[in-house]
Amino acid sequence: MIRVSVNGYGTIGRRVADAVAAQPDMTLVGVAKMKPDYRAKIALEKGYEVYSGDEKSRLAFHDAGTESSGTARDLVSDSDIVVDCTPEDVGAENKKLYEQLGKRAIFQGGEEDATAGMSFVAQCNYEKAKGRKFVRVVSCNSTALCRVLNAVDEEFGISKARVVIARRAADPDEVGKGPIDAVVLDPITVPSHHGPDVNTVLPNFPVISMALKIPTTHMHLHSLIVSLKSGATYEKVEQKFSNTPRVMLVNGKKDGFKSTANIIDMAREMGRPRNDVYESIVWRDSIKVLDDELYFFMAVHQEAIVVPENVDAIRAMFGEDTRQESMAMTNKSLGIMR
Ligand code: NAD
Fold first, then answer.
1. Distance (Å, whole) CA 134 – CA 154
2. How many beta carbons lie within 10 A of that of residue 173, not counting itself?
3. What's the pLDDT at 135?
């Protein structure tokens, strides 16, 4: 059993903790967070050991009458590996502690590629993570893009990819973040950081991205245009995506998937925990090949898509399972069909 701890228990950390607890070959040692809020209380009710982020936070837990099991340092000391799910740039700070304690660590997309020295998406570069001390799971947008672009590149070769990303403004519980009635160019300049981030995993073709923030909390929506090296047809692309792990094709016209809200509603109807959609969702009706260019729409559930990647990264770093074995085990535990 791999002893795993989760440092940071917000949008991503809570999901990673539940996913780790569901693996037959992993033990969740505990989770660390800063505040003794309702999330801490529910974690305790679930039977998780809850640690405070630091000494100051341990006192806050004590004052609130919720005793923590120790600090993040104690938690990490007692684990084989820590999945760092703290906010952007905090992970890079925490790396010093992990190095000091000689522990392996996984960082999230808010950290730089250089913090871990390797950026990870299971179906693209699982083997590269074997035996590594540090790995970074790329952001939600990059994970989704890497899955589909890797598949297209395998089949047809890509000379250039372009994507416009309509980003959710905030996660559902982040009431302090906007916008409420605006579309924000984020950033105004081109490219956004997303294309270069995809290149940390798939370096062999340029990915040019533009991004804007829209007033929704559900999902991101990507509009892709991909220039291909060899002849593709709708049928061939549809076939390739049908066989690509963690890519789900949905029908707009036939099945009524007209918006990202329908995708989240599907997850609710499927009884997925927290309505989570782990797959990259591609609209079958949007796939179009014109000359040597492929067009399609893709939806990305920012809260969930990186969860299976974190689980696979843990196995990859301990080097005991093949990519196929790990992905199959992770998929089964999370109810991902393929
Ligand atoms: P979040 O703000 O929802 O949660 C962060 C958690 O870390 C909170 O529980 C906070 O209390 C805790 N924390 C803060 N400082 C800490 C410290 N020093 N020690 C221990 N805990 C600490 O953040 P999130 O959205 O889950 O993002 C985490 C990481 O995942 C970031 O790198 C982010 O870029 C990445 N990511 C986020 C999303 C998303 O859509 N939310 C998607 C993919 C990747």
1. 27
2. 11
3. 98
- Residue 155, token pair as written in the block: 């089949």
Mean of all residue pLDDT scores within the chain: 97
Express each pLDDT in 61-84 by its tens digit: 999 999 999 999 999 999 999 999
Write out the DSSP string of 146-160.
HHHHHHHHHHH-EEE
Q: Which of 12, 37, 173 is the pocket-test mutation for ligand 1 (most atoms within 8 Å of CB)?
A: 12
Average pLDDT over residues 277-303: 98
Please give the structure tokens belonging to residue 71. 């600090």
Give percent helix, percent strand, percent coil of the chain, each to the nearest 5.
40, 25, 35
Ligand 1 pocket: which residues have CB below 6 Å? 7-13, 32-35, 53, 72, 85-88, 90, 108-111, 139-140, 171, 302-303, 306
Q: What is the pLDDT of residues 196-240, one digit of tens each?
A: 999 999 999 999 999 999 999 999 999 999 999 998 999 999 999
Torsion of CA 327, 106, 221, 330, to 10 degrees: 20
Residue type, 106: I
**Ligand 1 pocket mutation pick from 85, 121, 167, 173 by most atoms within 8 angstroms of CB:** 85
- Structure token digits, residue 241: 């995506």
Q: Which domains does the chain have, with CATH numbers?
A: 2-138+306-334 (3.40.50.720), 140-300 (3.30.360.10)
**What are the residues facing 26 on neighbouring strands?**
2
Q: How many whole angstroms separate alpha carbon 130 and alpha carbon 125? A: 10
Measured from the Cβ of residue 64, the count of other Cβ atoms closer than 10 Å reads: 14
- Tokens at 317, concatenated: 């770093």
